[in-house]
Amino acid sequence: MKTSKAVLKNVWPYQKDAMNLPVGNLETAIPYYETLMGFKVVSRHDHPFKAATLARDTIQIGLAENGGDPTQDGCFFEVDDVEAIFEELRANGYEKEEADFQIQKYGVSYKVFFVVAPDGLCYCFGQKIDL
Length: 131
What we know:
- It is a single chain.
- By secondary structure, this protein is an alpha+beta fold.
- It has one domain (8-129): 2,3-Dihydroxybiphenyl 1,2-Dioxygenase, domain 1.
- Helices cover 15% and strands 41% of the residues.
- The chain has helices at residues 26-35, 82-91; strands at 8-13, 21-22, 40-45, 51-56, 59-64, 74-79, 102-106, 108-116, 122-129.
- It has a five-stranded mixed beta sheet, with helices on one face. Strands 2-5-4-3 form a four-stranded mixed beta sheet, covered by helices on one side.
- Strand 4 (51-56) and strand 5 (59-64) form a beta hairpin.
């Protein structure tokens, strides 16, 4: 197993805003992102609703108790090594045995896998590949 961590290079939200990803309960959501996904909370606020900004590498996302439906949102994370990020998640407690890698095209081709967080948000991790 690799010992180096994968680098998250870019983030693209599925809906409108990676800084306002909806969660039902901010306090119960944050530990998953810190423990499993390697994010750190860099700021919090309570108005107009509870929210936190989380950072990893050069990217940031925001979780917010904004009344949105988490099952309809999430982000695509571009990573430098999709296999390394899967192994890192597994080492951090992700219970899925296989990544079920797929090849998807978004102008360029990516090797991807999906993670659904306990809060319902869906994340796709992908690495650019040449076919």
